[in-house]
Amino acid sequence: MNATSLKLAGNNKVPSITIDYCLNSELPIGHKVDPNETALPPTAYKAELKKRQPALTSPSNFNLSEPEKELLRCHHKLGHVAIRRIQWLFRQGILATSNKERRLQAAAAKLTCGPLCTACQYAKQRRKTYPGTVKRVVPQEDGGCKANTLFPGQEIAIDIFYARPRGRLLNTFGKEAADQKYKGGCIFANCATSFLHIGLLSNVSGHNTTTVKEEFDKMCQNHGVVPQQFISDNGSEFVNSDFQAHLEQLQQSHRLAGVGAHHSNGVAERGILTIMSIARAMLHHAALHWPDVADVELWPLALLHAVDLLNKIPRTETGWSAYKLFTRKTYPYSKLREFHVWGCPVYVLDSHLANNKKLPRWQPRSGRHIYVGNSKTHSHSIPLVLSLDTGKITAQYHVV
Length: 400
Ligand SMILES: [Zn+2]
Known about the structure:
Shape: globular
Low-confidence stretches: 1-41
Bound molecules: zinc ion
Oligomer: single chain
Number of helices: 12
Strand content: 5-15%
Mean pLDDT: 81
CATH superfamily of the largest domain: Ribonuclease H-like superfamily/Ribonuclease H
Number of domains: 3
Structural class: alpha+beta
Radius of gyration: 22 Å
């Protein structure tokens, strides 16, 4: 892909990431590359930059100890979730495959101050509280949105989110017209188990919302869960005759939050915040490490991967994952090791060799693609890869 395909920088709606390259390259802080020419420095300059600036987890980085590097590696793999959560996973011993790794992760779990992740600094920074302001959670009110919901499907909070620029479709070559691309989506957050599901939307309307709701119902049916009640705000997508008729047909009840009372639908609102911050961190991480192919239009894939990870990673309070609680099916935690850093390069075996045919002797045996998550429709270990040549997203088995 050439430099014009990189759209993470140079867009008014998206924070520019050019500053990071400037920091790495010892240029003055705040230096911006002219967005009319190219979003990034020339290729030769980037190659020189890469020589001087190895990855944080590289063996040549002497500023971080080995346990700190291991902590960062797993943090990158598992969708930039909190360092404390990774340390908890290390203590459970579910991410180690050998005694050496176990010893390394045991040392990493004891670190009191974890290393900082560059992508997280870009993606998750928030306002500081004013001096003298203290925010405390009232223990009696904590988890009020989820009170009295005990079973999967008992209450499901739904909400609509938007994202700009529009995201590419998953079943095309990424060359569709702009008005056909994803404009946003609908989140379904189960109150009892914190299980999340998203449906992507090209047009946010009552009819399309009903379509993604039907997909959610089908997913629930596959897991033996019966959705009983939905909570939403007063958006026109939910307060229309189509959606209400659909709910009535399935004998599902609908509870509306008061106008402006976003806290009533807090589970869905919080879910949107969490998946957005994780997807943003993954997109920025990919852009920092492989700027040539970074594309913000891949956000639908990043969001789906973020939801998948959040559902599968066990929670520190219970030791159970949202997926396990919602589906009441076992999910071997060893499968967490099958996730890779979102946006990393993967090498896919040439289709001729995969089909037992021969290739000329000196021709490459594989092609370089981008890892964009694991397939939901295939086995857990089948990664989804984005072809750099065609732009097609496929599930591949013969990958490294
Ligand atoms: Zn991070």
